[in-house]
Amino acid sequence: MPHVTAAVLAGGAGTRMGAGVPKQLLPLAGRPVLEHAVAAFQDAPEVDEVLVVMAPDHLHEAERITAPFPKVTAVLPGGSTRTDSSVAALRAVDARPGSDLLLLHDAARPLVARSTVAAAVAALEHAGAVGVAVPSSDTVVRVAPGADGAEAIAEVPPRAELRRMQTPQGFRLEVLRRAYAAALADPDLVATDDCGVVLRYLPGEPVHIVAGTEANIKVTHPGDVEVAEALLRREAGRGAGEGGR
Ligand SMILES: Nc1ccn([C@@H]2O[C@H](COP(=O)(O)OP(=O)(O)OP(=O)(O)O)[C@@H](O)[C@H]2O)c(=O)n1
Ligand SMILES: C[C@](O)(CO)[C@H](O)COP(=O)(O)O
Question: Which of the following CATH numbers is that of domain 4-134+162-244: 1.10.3720.10, 3.90.550.10, 3.40.50.970, 3.40.50.1000?
């Protein structure tokens, strides 16, 4: 059996939320957002170990929140971008040989389903990289400045080919290691997720997709915690196990 490490990325500042504290520390149904995300991996039988990558000024809060979770083996300081925090997780795993698979998950996605974690790990039996995604119900367009300089539609990609990426995103360690070795040598590296890093820097490496759930939202803007609370209540109403949580 492969050794699976999940890294919960909680190194962000929550600027868009504007709460005065990082959004992963905000209460969601009585527990911090971060605790929900960590609990999802603690409860996942496929996961052996959990690392938490926390905003450097809030390491002690993360240590306190995660202390009851026996799978949490380290709380590490994050970097200034999400990519830097992913690299911090990768380096920590690399420094302790024994891991085969690494799942990178946004702490800001506290409603990740157990079935999603299981599907991501299962896909790594045959794939080097896997992302979780859902179809888009909106039409998604690419924009560019028009002739008058104002934003205009430049392209309407076929919606059936589009997916919205979520986390966790999972990798065989040697794949993520090679991808980031190339990425970090690129002075123009800009990435919004880790599957994108593999796709760009290891073009021969297929990145598989498994279906996510609509409930796996990323708490990002004011009001999202209330949405997450409503989703949690709905999942609780469906009963444990049903609805995937
Ligand atoms: N330097 C960073 C930035 C982000 N993250 C984490 O990556 C996830 C997704 O990032 P995002 O939603 O952008 O979180 P923030 O960076 O906190 O939000 P904002 O951009 O509004 O400041 C979050 O769990 C966040 O804590 C991280 O570990 N390290
Ligand atoms: C990784 C991610 O959650 C996939 O949708 C997303 O790209 C993170 O973006 P953010 O700007 O760091 O929230």
Answer: 3.90.550.10
* 36 Cα to the center of ligand 2, angstroms: 18
78: helix, strand or coil: coil
Confidence of residue 242 (pLDDT cuts 50, 70, 90): very low
What atom in ligand 2 is closest to the CA of residue 164?
Answer: 5
Q: What DSSP state is assigned to residue 97?
A: B
Site to probe by mutation for ligand 2, drawn from 193, 199, 214 as the one with most ligand atoms within 8 Å of Cβ, is 193
Q: From the alpha carbon of 106, which atom of ligand 1 is closest? A: 24
The alpha carbon of 236 and the centre of ligand 2 are apart by a number of angstroms equal to: 26
If one counts every other C-beta atom within 10 angstroms of the C-beta of residue 235, the result is: 18
pLDDT digits (tens, 9 = 90+) for 105-131: 999 999 999 999 999 999 999 999 999
Shortest-distance atom of ligand 2 to CA 194: 1
Output the pTM of the full model: 0.96
Domain boundaries, given as residue ranges, for the chain: 4-134+162-244
d(CA 127, CA 123): 6
Pairing between β-strand 49-54 and β-strand 151-155 as defined by DSSP bridges = unpaired
